[in-house]
Amino acid sequence: MSADLPLAEDERAPAEQAATGPVTLVVDDEEGIRNFLSRSLERRGWRVTAVSSAEEGAHHLERHCVDLIILDIALPGRSGLEWLKDLHGAGFGGDVILITAFADLDTAIEALRAGAADLILKPFRIEQIVTAIGRCVERTRLQRENFVLRRQLAKRRGSGDEIVGRSPAILRLQALIERVAPSPSTVLIEGESGVGKELVARALHTRSHRTERPFVALNCAAVSADLIEAELFGHLRGAFTGAKEARKGLFYYAHGGTLFLDEIGELPLALQSKLLRVLEERRIRPVGGEQELPVDVRVVAATNRDLKAEVAAGRFRQDLFYRLAVMTLRVPPLRERGDDVVELARRFMGVLSLRLGVPPLDIDPELEAALVAHPWPGNVRELRNLVERALLFGEFPLEDLGLPAGGIETAGGGADGRMLAEVEKRHILAVLAESGGNRARAALALGVSRKTLDRKCTEWGV
Question: 319-330: per-residue pLDDT in tens?
Answer without folding.
Answer: 999 999 999 999
